[in-house]
Write a sequence for this structure.
């Protein structure tokens, strides 16, 4: 019961006026001290969820779940304002704290009467909503349902929401996420009509900035560093893995407002990056309760404010039972003038709020979180509080206290006890195997340094469950500064004692975060050694906390990410370990990025630089960062001005390119040389001059690469002019690269169409490449490729081709067509056709080249052009031509010219799998982009694919083609909104054939599940029966893989099928433990969602008892129960 009830009486059931107290309760949902920013998610998700019709019904049940302080109530108030113009008298707003529930009158009817009474309509709420005067659009907005929910009330509460929905009333309910998952989820979908469940995320970066700036402006707070810089500092501190704990603060409107108030006007404006929510609450209490703005009687006012808050907290706790009482009469607090002054100050500061419109004016803490925190502090303030604290903790230890209000308050008690160094004594006797006790004690322990408690938690987690380990790691991540060494020691103990693969990524991330938060260079040598030796495959079922499949990279990647995000260098020992571990290309990129940080000691960077210069050809290097590091730390002689001929700098350049074993990375050395030469004219002349010298093969390759890179950096004309000087070619041994060969290689690079050089230099450069009559075969090819790439030189390519023998001529025409731009081919269409005819009449090669030339024709924006291309692709016997056709069709599709996907059907039957796949993907994209172009087109597409399957079977399909076919079928059925019998037959045949041939794994499995669900939703009688059967067969017969897409599709389809009676919960419960481990968890999620009782129901209990249930599925149930 509530200390003060505001529920009115006196209205009759026949009264059709607007519901009572709507204006008053709307004011209760005003943000108060918060800025009233409008969040994007309200317009993008929540308002459409209420207004848009789906499944033919206008009414639905919508749950808006979020953490405490996430702004659920404010959002509900804004939603009320948006709905009021359209709903009028049919809109009811109700804070849960206004309900007086009588548990002696159970059932949805009893709850409906309590709701009606609170809304001033004694009688039956459902009947009242049915009155015509309420209008056609009706909605109930219920705030903070977690205040009234208990295991006993949840079924009646959900039944009432279902009754309202059946009467055309949409219910929008805000609730804490934990209470929803524990008490509501299992009941919500029991009638086969799923509700909309949306989680309210934290503030986005843009919303954090807007909120902070508006808050500072509203209260006249002027940070010394300026409001804009203050807001930006919040975002910087919350960036990356190391800032995740701080992000949880700034993404909460409640905590962000406290942060702005406490730190906004500090002299330095500095905010500790290690700030936690418990620190913030303590600081906010100190700022508002333990201090006063009035200098004359500050001490007396301060004491009175604290006494008043404790009095309010104690009374609220005494009046709370299964739900938390939030209000107390003002008269009970205003005992004298001093109390009245203290109360006015707390109200003006927004620490307390008043409901002055209630029949009896009443007072509350401004938020439920503050209520829980104040009660926790009260339990340390005197004998009565201490007795209440002892009773609370003893009840939780014994397991006899099952009130929903107990653990939130106990969490505050444990955190405060840690500040007072009493945590070890307070947690004694708790059963740490209980998930709720473990979680709350773990996060309380992170608020201070209690090595014995932290060690006991780690030992319990190691022997209990993976879920306990996850909670333990999450608590270590947010450890206070005093506990960082303890957290590091416990995390490294987990690492060296043999962590299971499923947690290696999370453990690596936590170690990285702790390394960043500890002072000094990041000392991660030991974790690098241990994690570097781990090889965790994606098939291990390794997931992050959100259930996302991890990539098959080394956990070292996750160890280093926090360091890179925080731009924190490592110590020398860690650098030595990195140099000793070549690792993967991804890790090399991270290693180099860490050593390019500004604070990295030169000794460590030079160690990596020497390693890079010794890497052999064949080892993949991230070239840009490698060259940057070597160029930065390679010691170049210091000289005044430009280096003179024969200088030490020129000697260093020659040494870099010409000396050393030539199996070392030539591209890296060339890149470093080009970077250095780009900024020095003298060194540039030295590099270009090396082209005139006959060099060893390896050295010549480096020089050519360096010159090509120099050209791409803006010095192409310098190179071109040098190459066009008169020179002779000396005869040299084959082990040497002649100057002419080097010059020809650089000329070919310069003639590449993307290189910027003076246009008049192109013909002259091309002459360097013109082959002699007795030249090797590669010379004409190189000349044609270079000449065909530009309109100024393409005629010379045709002239050369015309002088070749007939068999070589067609070969070079093929080279020309591959190298030339479409504009060039269109301009030379007739000369090309003439050359083809002169090469030998009608043979396969000439027909191929003739067929290819029309593909380059002009691109008119019309259907005729598409039809011509498809017809050419369907007739040609040349794969290269078919590929070219697809390339042009894809270009047309990207510009929106393919509006009728049926036009692509002729390409579905081509003998080349790649062509078929590309055509089907284009058709699917066209269907997605033009869903309004008619059902007939989608029907034809689905019918054609279905006929292919039924008539021809799936012989020869690969996984990629199967995925393309399934995806196109899905888009066709979605667009057509119907499933003809022939299509239904084809869908079943496709999936069955794929199962027979063991093709359903990975992405094809996801596509098959999505397709079956789409067809199931369309209501075709055969598929309503066969789609769930095929799903069960798929899960039983084949390991279908484990990706996020598969998990989402599988869980959603299973929920839908259970709700419609196509799959039975008893049958699923028997089958699940016998499926592959990676398949079990998504279907267990569906069982928990649809089964009465959810994670505590009979089906979940039966699953837990089965010895073959996977660890992940078991953890889902345990998490749901806690």
């Amino acid at each position: 019961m509530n200390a003060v009830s505001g529920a009115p009486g006196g209205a009759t059931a026949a009264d059709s006026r607007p519901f009572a107290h709507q204006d008053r309760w709307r004011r209760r949902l005003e943000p108060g001290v918060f800025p009233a920013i409008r969040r994007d998610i309200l317009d993008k998700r929540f308002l459409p969820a209420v207004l848009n019709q789906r499944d033919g019904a206008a009414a639905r049940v919508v749950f808006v779940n979020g953490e405490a302080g996430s702004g659920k109530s404010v959002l509900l108030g804004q939603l009320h304002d948006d709905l009021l113009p359209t709903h009028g008298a049919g809109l009811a707003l109700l804070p849960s704290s206004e309900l007086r529930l009588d548990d002696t009158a159970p059932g949805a009817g009893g709850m409906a009467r309590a709701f009606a009474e609170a809304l001033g309509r004694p009688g039956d709420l459902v009947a009242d909503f049915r009155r015509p005067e309420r209008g056609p659009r009706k909605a109930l907005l219920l705030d903070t349902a977690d205040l009234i929910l208990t295991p006993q009330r949840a079924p009646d509460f959900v039944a009432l929401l279902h009754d309202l929905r059946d009467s055309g009333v949409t219910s929008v309910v805000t609730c804490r996420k934990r209470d929803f998952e524990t008490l509501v989820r299992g009941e919500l979908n029991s009638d086969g009509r799923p509700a909309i469940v949306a989680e309210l995320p934290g503030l986005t970066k843009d919303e954090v900035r807007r909120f902070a700036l508006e808050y500072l402006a509203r209260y006249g707070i002027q940070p010394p560093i300026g409001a804009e810089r203050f807001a930006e500092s919040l975002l910087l501190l919350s960036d990356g893995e190391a800032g995740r704990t701080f992000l949880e603060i700034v993404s909460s409107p409640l905590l962000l407002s406290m942060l702005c108030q406490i730190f906004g006007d500090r002299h330095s404006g500095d905010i500790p990056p290690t700030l936690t929510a418990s620190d913030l609450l303590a600081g906010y209490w100190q700022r508002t309760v333990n201090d006063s703005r009035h200098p004359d009687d500050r001490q007396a006012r301060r004491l009175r404010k604290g006494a008043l808050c404790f009095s309010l907290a104690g009374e609220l706790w005494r009046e709370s039972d299964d739900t938390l009482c939030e209000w107390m009469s003002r008269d009970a607090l205003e005992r004298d003038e001093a109390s009245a002054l203290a109360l006015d100050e707390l109200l003006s500061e927004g620490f307390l709020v008043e409901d002055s419109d209630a029949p009896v004016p009443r007072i509350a803490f401004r938020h439920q979180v503050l209520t829980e925190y104040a009660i926790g502090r009260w339990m340390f303030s005197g004998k009565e509080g201490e007795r209440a604290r002892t009773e609370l903790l003893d009840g939780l230890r014994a397991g006899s206290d099952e009130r929903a209000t107990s653990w939130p308050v106990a969490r505050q008690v444990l955190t405060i006890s840690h500040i007072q160094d009493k945590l070890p004594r307070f947690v004694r006797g708790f059963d740490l195997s209980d998930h709720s006790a473990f979680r709350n004690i773990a996060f309380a322990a992170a608020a201070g340094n209690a090595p014995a408690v932290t060690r006991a938690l780690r030992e319990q987690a190691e022997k209990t469950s993976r879920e306990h380990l996850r909670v333990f790691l999450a608590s270590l991540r947010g450890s206070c500064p005093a506990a960082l060494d303890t957290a590091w020691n416990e995390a490294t103990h987990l690492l060296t004692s043999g962590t299971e693969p499923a947690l290696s990524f999370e453990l690596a991330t936590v170690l990285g975060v702790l390394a960043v938060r500890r002072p000094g260079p990041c000392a991660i040598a030991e974790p690098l050694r241990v994690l570097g030796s781990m090889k965790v495959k994606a098939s291990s079922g390794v997931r992050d906390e959100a259930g996302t499949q991890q990539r098959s990279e080394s956990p070292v990647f996750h160890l280093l990410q926090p360091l890179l995000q925080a731009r924190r260098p490592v110590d020398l020992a860690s650098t030595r370990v990195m140099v000793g571990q070549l690792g993967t290309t991804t890790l090399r990129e991270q290693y180099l990025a860490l050593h390019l940080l500004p604070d990295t000691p030169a000794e460590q960077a030079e160690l990596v630089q020497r390693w890079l210069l010794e890497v052999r050809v064949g080892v993949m290097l991230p070239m840009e960062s490698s060259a940057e590091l070597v160029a930065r730390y390679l010691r170049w002689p210091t000289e005044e001005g430009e280096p003179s001929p024969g200088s030490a700098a020129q000697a260093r350049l020659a040494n870099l390119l010409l000396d050393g074993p030539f199996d070392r990375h030539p591209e890296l050395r060339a890149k470093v040389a080009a970077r250095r030469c780009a900024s020095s004219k003298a060194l540039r002349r030295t590099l270009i001059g090396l082209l005139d010298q006959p060099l060893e093969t390896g050295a010549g390759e480096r020089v050519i690469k360096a010159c090509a890179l120099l050209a791409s950096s803006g010095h192409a004309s310098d190179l071109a002019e040098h190459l066009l000087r008169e020179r002779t070619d000396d005869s040299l041994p084959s082990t040497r690269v002649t100057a002419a060969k080097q010059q020809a290689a650089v000329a070919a690079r310069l003639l590449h169409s993307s290189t910027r050089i003076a246009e008049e230099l192109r013909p002259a450069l091309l002459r360097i490449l013109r082959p002699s009559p007795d030249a090797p075969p590669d010379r004409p090819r190189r000349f044609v490729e270079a000449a065909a790439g530009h309109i100024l030189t393409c005629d010379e390519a045709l002239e050369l081709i015309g002088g070749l023998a007939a068999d070589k001529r067609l070969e070079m025409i093929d080279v020309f067509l591959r190298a030339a731009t479409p504009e060039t081919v269109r301009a030379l269409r007739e000369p090309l056709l003439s050359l083809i005819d002169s090469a030998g009449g009608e043979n396969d090669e000439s027909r191929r080249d003739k067929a290819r030339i029309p593909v380059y024709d002009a691109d008119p924006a019309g259907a005729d052009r598409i039809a011509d291309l498809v017809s050419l692709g369907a007739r040609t016997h040349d794969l290269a031509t078919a590929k070219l056709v697809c390339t042009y069709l894809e270009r047309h599709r990207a510009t929106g010219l393919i509006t009728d996907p049926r036009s692509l059907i002729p390409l579905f039957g081509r003998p080349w799998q790649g062509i078929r796949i590309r055509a089907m993907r284009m058709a699917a994209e066209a269907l997605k982009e033009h869903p309004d172009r008619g059902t007939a087109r989608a029907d034809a597409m689905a019918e054609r694919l279905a006929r292919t399957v039924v008539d021809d079977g799936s012989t020869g399909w690969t996984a990629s083609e199967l995925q393309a076919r399934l995806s196109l079928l899905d888009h066709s059925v979605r667009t057509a909104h119907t499933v003809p019998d022939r299509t239904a037959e084809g869908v079943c045949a496709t999936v069955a054939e794929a199962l027979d041939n063991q093709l359903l794994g990975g992405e094809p499995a996801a596509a098959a599940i999505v397709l079956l669900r789409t067809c199931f939703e369309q209501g075709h009688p055969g598929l309503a029966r066969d789609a769930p059967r095929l799903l069960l067969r798929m899960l039983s017969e084949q390991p279908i893989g484990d990706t996020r897409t598969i998990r989402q599709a599988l869980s959603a389809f299973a929920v839908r099928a259970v709700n419609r009676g196509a799959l039975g919960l008893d049958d699923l419960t028997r089958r699940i433990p016998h499926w592959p481990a990676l398949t079990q968890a998504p279907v267990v999620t569906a069982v928990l969602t649809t089964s009465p009782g959810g994670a505590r129901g009979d089906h979940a209990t039966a699953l837990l008892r089965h010895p073959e249930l996977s660890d992940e599925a078991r953890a889902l149930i345990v998490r749901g129960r806690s």
The first helix runs from residue 22 to 28. The two ends are 26 Å apart (CA to CA). Residues 1-16, 537-552, 728-737 have pLDDT under 50 and may be disordered.
